[in-house]
Amino acid sequence: MSENISDTARTSQSCEIVPERIDIEPFTMVIFGGTGDLSKRKLLPTLYHLCIDQNLPDDFSIIGFASSERSDEEYRELVKKAVEEFSEGDFKADCWDRFSKHLFYVSGGFEDPESYKRLSQRLEELTISSSKGKKEVIIYMAVPPHFLPAIFQQLPFCNICKETYNARLIVEKPFGRDRASASELNTLIGKTFSEKSIYRIDHYLGKETVQNILFFRFANSIFEPLWNRRYIDHVQITVAESLGIENRARFYEKSGVVRDIVQNHMMQLFALVAMEPPIGFEADYIRNEKVKVYKTMRSMSEEYIDQFTVRGQYGTGILNGSEVLSYRDEKDTAPDSNTPTFFAGKFFIDNWRWAGVPFYLRTGKRLKKRVTEISIHFKQPPLRLFGSTCDIREPNLLVLGVQPHEEISLHIGVKHPGIGNQLYPVNMDFNYERDFKGDVHFPLSYERLLIDCMKGDQTLFARQDGIEAMWSVVDPIIKRWENSKVPEFPNYTSGSWGPEKANELIQNDGRNWRIS
Ligand SMILES: NC(=O)c1ccc[n+]([C@@H]2O[C@H](COP(=O)([O-])OP(=O)(O)OC[C@H]3O[C@@H](n4cnc5c(N)ncnc54)[C@H](OP(=O)(O)O)[C@@H]3O)[C@@H](O)[C@H]2O)c1
Fold it and tell me: Given a cut of 70, is residue 266 above it in pLDDT?
């Protein structure tokens, strides 16, 4: 629980930032799909960094588990190539030698019980007991979601998750494809793992600025009194990507933008902005508050969805000086595909704090530039005391930039120098890279999240009821879109800010997208 700040503690004190001690017990991580794209691009390079930065214990093992036949040595070669290609910084041979001896491989089919026996045997050989007498095991599901049912049919029958083992499970997004399938998956997983040992990962929550939203809101006393319907006019959240679907068409055709981005990343950002103060910084206090946000979001009727959501699919266009393909011309998409690659919508939260405040959400692929930001638009002052009547008045604006720059800026009005009384907009800025330059290490999203899982901290991972509540918000939109007439696709040019209707959505309320 949180502490009260007593009167005697009110004087300011300088605070030396000492690196947090990370005590991680010896463990074995089994990566299901240890040869796949996610493993090669993210997980294995991240584990390499954690090892060479000495954040891992001396005793740990990583077992890649996948279908192709290879020896431990061959697996080390595969991982070496991945680290060379995808890890940040120069590859160092001595660091690699330190890391590679912890790598092992088991080949086998996810449906094949014999494979699990071999895996259990390897685990038994490699895992040593922690100081608490248990063997710590982390099982990472780096596999496409359609494999999960087969894997969770097998897991209860091998001894990985019971007896002397203390097993934790990390599951990647997407977690289900609607509320019903997410709930089924939770039930299936729940046969082997308790909620306390399930880590549903969304790498967005590992980003510094995303975590900083909570610090910014609740470690400063000056913003929270303004953080409500009395002072805030509206909120915008934009998650714009300039990339198309790359080579993920098979996945994307079945998913679309709402399942891919809105249900998880956008809902997480939304909850961090809108949630009530938690009573402490422990995982469940924070997760309780997030779930309350989803539960108080106004439910959407079909009429509401038709009027206040916009879908789009990208056509051809010019990005960074080059012509790019339309979605329907990408490899492995259907030539008449109706999969949406753009979403905009207006949401409300029907609680005391936010009644009547619109939240405008927008995300899409092949937009003009890659940018993720939350902007809080404050109300105008009640009287116009300064400036001439034709001046455009810019209300205060707080921008929380997530990418490409992790920054916070507050836009305020000041007097323009001179003999007149002219208002002039200026910014007060905080920028992570500029203000923490020097020795400060910026952990990659996966670095932070893997360490948290090793420490047993679930704060940045979604809980079952949270996942299901997020699906409950977006399910009606997906259903309505799938069952109603599709707009003429493609309906926006690559390199633009999406369909014209997305502008109308916000302009009809007398507002504009901040980034346009
Ligand atoms: N790729 C990314 O950057 C990324 C980012 C965020 C989230 N994710 C999520 O991460 C998960 C994994 O995605 P991915 O792109 O890494 O998938 P992927 O490249 O298709 O990898 C699949 C893995 O599963 C193994 N495999 C396939 N069939 C098998 C079978 N029957 N038995 C045993 N092993 C089998 C493959 O091994 P073999 O090659 O040996 O068959 C491979 O290691 C997905 O949920 C995805 O949504 C991915």
Answer: yes
